[in-house]
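Reply to dn_fold:

You asked what the input looked like. This is it:
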Amino acid sequence: MDRRGRVLVAVGVAAVTAVLGASVFGGGPVDRPVPPGGALAGQLDALRGANDLVRATRTDVGRDPALYPTAYGRLEAALATRHRGGADARGVPGIRPAPLADLARSDVLDTPAWRAHYVCLALRGTGPAVSGGAVAVLERAGLRKRAGREALGYLRAPDATDDALTSLATRAAFLQTLTCLGRDGEVPRATVRALAADTARAGQAVPALYAVEALRAVGVRARATRVLRGADARLAAGCTGADPIQRAALTLLRQRLTQRTYDCLVPSLSDSDTQTRWLVRRALTVGGEGGDTAGGTAGSLPEPIGRVRSDGLVAKSPAQLGTLTATYNAARALTASAQQKRTPYWLERRLTRMGSDTGLEPSDRLLLAMTCHRLALTCGPQADMGAREAARLRVPTRLTAENERRWYGVMAARAEFGLGCGRTAVDLPEREAGDSTALSARSLRIVVVLADAGCTAQAERLTEGTHLVAQARESLREGDLPTASDAVQAALVSEQSIPQDLWDDLPGLLRRYRDTRFPDLYASSPGGTASADATRAAYYLLA
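and this is what came back:
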């Protein structure tokens, strides 16, 4: 699961945008050699994550420090220290501004305001003087002004394309961040009142909890009315009645820990996600029912599985987890190689369980639906909801640099479900420097997803004057399999003549991209390790 998705509980358009491309398009009838891929389904085990989703790459995740685990890992460590009998977090190694600023600067996956949020959380696990320390770190990282501007801008005018839970979670995080930076006084009171009202209407515990806590810090009392309604029944339904992070948040909102919830939550202290572990540990320290402290054993809880390094930073989780984005790419590879009926049992089982999980985060529904649709699986109500959400998505009327991620995600969803082109305009794409007949990798992806969504006329117009077959050969020679694959798909769309010798040569040209240990999986560049996206790209060429 996307780490930000655990905070945002967002609709999954952003997740769709990461590496999705378009489907294969038909050209004229040509004779192609029988492609490899008979062992693809079995070899996907090499990309199997600990959560039974497909991993993006066969390369193991390293133990380098990162901003997100540092934020929540320090909070968890500080909490564990306090409940061992310490009065504060002084048992947690201190953190120096320079390395924390370096992490914030290099974390390009998150926006400045989200990076500021994680910096504030990391320093909250240190002790007093958070505001001054956070400002200094963000100034050093060159993020202070941009983070403040983004947070204030969103609070004043939330993104209209965000669903209610995404908006609530984002506003709560950004209000906490502005409070941390000493700028909460700049937030209009009407904005704060609206956040409190939306908290009462929220239907999930995690964003509601964060909103309640953010509002409390600025002197506003809010209640998670809808979340708390019926909470007793949900928590009494057994350990599968609620996702651990949602169960923990419900417990913190109710400030009451039952023995059943205690028993359900303890195993999640070994969860791979640091935010989940921190919330679960918080919940396990809440006083029990009727004065009985089910949480009274907090001092004897297991030690955190994560470790705060001597420099105060926390490394990425060593667990090798799969993602829905990579799983969707694997599904596309399976269908391109006509192996979808041999989808691994562990993957089918995981997808159908997710489809029946009432606690599934909305951020996962769309990609789950797209994956199940591609594999012709009936995955359950959550996937059905994702398919309905896809039908409601509106493509931006014009592709711009600002909306490109959302535009691409919506177009990919429309392509998957055959929803048609939609009304959208795309300007002439970028050409490769020094070669007016070649498109940039970005432009190729745009052309391919346009065509896959049914915008054939636009795709043809954007490829006028290009020599895409030559570009595909050149990309393969230079070691760029995904770009070569997109160039061939774009050539098919634009009805450029593809000589028979290219189809004949492709198996040989792709041989050096094969993973040395798992030859039916492919790497993006020769000699690399297999990735889900490169494998998808290869089978689109070989289909």
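The longest helix spans residues 164-180.
Hope that clears it up.
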